[in-house]
Amino acid sequence: MDVELRDLKWAVVASEHRSLRQAAQALNIRQSTLSRRLRFIEDRLGAELFLRSNGGTHPTVAGLEFLDAARRILEDASTAFRKLKARSRGKTGQLTIGVYASLTTGNMYATLAEHHRRYPEVDVHIVDGGHDRLFGALMAKSIDIAIMTRSSPNWDDRCLLLWSERVVAAIPDGHLLCQRTAVEWPELAGERILLTSQGPGPELEHLLMAKSRSISYRHALYQEAGVDRLLSLVSAGHGISLVLEGATGLRYEGVTYREVHENGEPTRLPFFAYWQRECSNPAAPPFLEMLRERYPDLSADPAPG
């Protein structure tokens, strides 16, 4: 039989109380049981660890060295157990989230900030992409959760409706549309539209074609670049970009933001969280629980009474 962590703890408690009787009471065991285990440890080590007398139990020189090592082992084990327990509860580790749009402001930014406040030991890794890329990453389990617009009827796993974001036109200063407090879709029909090929770009072009009731806008220029690069082009007068309100935290000189309206009301795109039932990352459930708390499903019928 090998020496166990319990034996190390018992030896440390015996040294602290300097009395086997008092140590046994503190440990809630029989004195004879404690005495036998201490003898066992000494036999295994081939060294006397305690001097026993009517005056109490005192460590020997070898015992002091042993107790020093025992305390370090117990402390290291306690630290390891705490970390493993925290990881199993999703309080440490890494969470990989596929994100569809900008994080500079809005609900996604606020959600990540709140998650970091609650779980500062969880490292969040962000992956950008469009619908197809993020759904593929979910199925390949290279991401834990994807947050995107548009509910997908082909996704037969888990989905949670979150928030909605307004569609915003980023317009070069000096353009006539800057004089408006908001822009209606038909007013964009004759413009060169700059879109990112990742994220909501294709969906925003579809909205433009459907809601402007025209295909006479010059063309959509897709860019293999992030929103910040598009805004630089807008600032330089290359066209108007359509973005979601989460990107409006990016401020560029020479760029004016205006909401895009339909019949006088802001156009909004809903966001959803997607994940797989068998997601094994312990850091995912706390994040999803926080999403449910922040964005509860109000579609269910209220409880009677």
Structure overview:
With 305 residues, this protein is an alpha/beta fold. The protein has 3 domains: 84 residues, Arc Repressor Mutant, subunit A (Orthogonal Bundle), CATH 1.10.10.10; 96 residues, Periplasmic binding protein-like II (D-Maltodextrin-Binding Protein, domain 2, 3-Layer(aba) Sandwich); 105 residues, Periplasmic binding protein-like II (D-Maltodextrin-Binding Protein, domain 2). It has 9 helices and 13 strands. Strands 3, 4, 5, 6, 7, 8, 9, 10, 11, 12 and 13 form an 11-stranded mixed β-sheet that branches. A two-stranded antiparallel ribbon has the order 1-2. Helix 1 crosses helix 2. It is rod-shaped, with a radius of gyration of 32 Å. The relative contact order is 0.15.
Looking at this protein, list some descriptive labels.
single chain; 305 residues; alpha/beta; D-Maltodextrin-Binding Protein, domain 2; 3 domains; eleven-stranded mixed β-sheet; disordered C terminus
How would you summarize the topology of this molecule?
Blueprint: H1 5-17, H2 20-27, H3 31-45, E1 50-53, E2 56-59, H4 61-88, E3 93-99, H5 106-118, E4 122-128, H6 131-139, E5 145-149, E6 158-172, E7 182-184, E8 192-196, H7 201-211, E9 219-223, H8 227-235, E10 240-244, E11 255-262, E12 265-266, E13 268-275, H9 284-294
Parallel strand pairs: 3-4, 3-5, 7-11, 8-9, 8-10
Antiparallel strand pairs: 1-2, 5-13, 6-10, 6-11, 6-13, 11-12
Helix pairs in contact: 1-2, 1-4, 2-3
Average per-residue pLDDT, rounded, comes to 83
Number of domains: 3
Helix content percent band: 25-40%
Determine the number of helices (DSSP H or I, runs of at least 4 residues): 9
- Beta-strand percent range: 25-35%
Architecture (CATH level 2) name of the largest domain: 3-Layer(aba) Sandwich
Overall CATH class of the largest domain? Alpha Beta
Cα end-to-end separation = 63 Å
The largest sheet is: 11 strands, mixed
